[in-house]
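Q: Sequence in, structure out?
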Amino acid sequence: MNFPGPLRGILRGRNAPPGNGAAGTSYALRPPSPPRKGGEDPNAQRPSRGLEEFFASIRGQSGLTILELGGATQQNVSYITNLGHCLYSLDFLQILNETFGDDKIDQANPGRIEYFLRQTLDHPEEHFDAVLIWDVLEYLEPPLLAAVVDRLRKIVRPGSCLLAFFHSDDKLEAVPVYTFRIQSVNTLHVAQRGTRSPAQLFNNRGIERLFGNFASVKFFLTRERLREVIVKT
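A: Exactly. Output:
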């Protein structure tokens, strides 16, 4: 399968009927800076404890419905659907950009927030078994972020697992934006696709407060200075 652009739609496992999706257009990010001499490669394959725990939570099951917010990649689609699951993938940041542009003030507008939720998370309650959030939550202003996290809690089933990434340095003015490609049950290829100014950055306590209405939050620190966070309902 080849994807010409970000995908919004359902991609199903080999034992389910085929789905469909519509391709969107890419949005601009500042290009990634080349790695400094002796620094970390922004495009690297590495082990992921968070991903390992995510897949451990659904091990031995099939036919699950999984939501991914980072946009469709061939590797992720193939990996998850080959396990027999149904994947719903959308480019959350692209839709954020289309809806709000650079207007952070508008992210507090109740009508605009509701419109954004209809574009991204308009699903029945307890619809998903797991969510790959990746790194998208850092770009939401507090009113929009609270609404998105609350909607996520409603559309996942009890006992679901969510995997999110947060930068560990909470004083950065711009942070790398990554594409995460699943290589194996515990390995990711992390590719930097630019940088973006975060709406807010979090320490561990802030992340715990953010997911205060969920059952548990568990942290893993990676070498890309990212926190991998497993959230369970």
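Confidence is low (pLDDT under 50) at residues 1-40.
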